[in-house]
Structure prediction request, 237 residues.
Amino acid sequence: MDFADKNILIVGASSGIGLATAQLLQQLGAHLYTASRHRTPALEEIGADFIELDSTQPLGTALDGLPEVLHGVVYCPGNIRLRPFERISTDDFRADFELNVLGAVQVLQATMKRLKKANGASVVLFSTVAAETGMAFHTSIATAKAAVEGLTRALAAEYAASNIRVNAVAPSLTNTPLAATLLNTPEKIDASAKRHPLQRIGEPKDIAYMASFLLSDHSSFITGQILPVDGGMSRLK
Prediction:
């Protein structure tokens, strides 16, 4: 995959899957723009253009400095709020929806004109295995990510004529800082691994490879898809 001369915006690139995707795209020659609330040392090592951004707040002029043409946008922000349904407040549901769905909506509305000018652009969003496979205590995040899947398909249909592809990646549990409390002992890691048919949990690079593929010209005939990268969890027993 060659990303030379391609401008890619990654929102939520400070750690985990977003950081792994930024690192891979940098190696593949992309001109990267990373946006997140904080600029981490790992982001500084990549050397990408940095934009301070909180996608749960009005964007204002934060993205005005992007180039006139964008070839790809990746929206990575997410969270893991695992609680019994009766202990999840409506404010919790609202916060998950604002971060996962409305944040993506804001970013895409602010960048769509730039994507249209690429004459062949790609948007990558993120869902979760829990949006399709019912899992206890995942009510809030599964609801928000199911909305992301609906957004993915609707945008793919609306912008196909503009040659903008929109897809989503649906990971299972991945070894990121976001999942640290779920993987903070060898016993937890082993138990999580055994729930996957491939007998391991995901690594950020597993997801980054898929995101990079979807951004590349190699996936030019793929749009409107939800692609599970989940060790077989959503399809196999």
Q: What stands out?
A: The two ends are 33 Å apart (CA to CA).
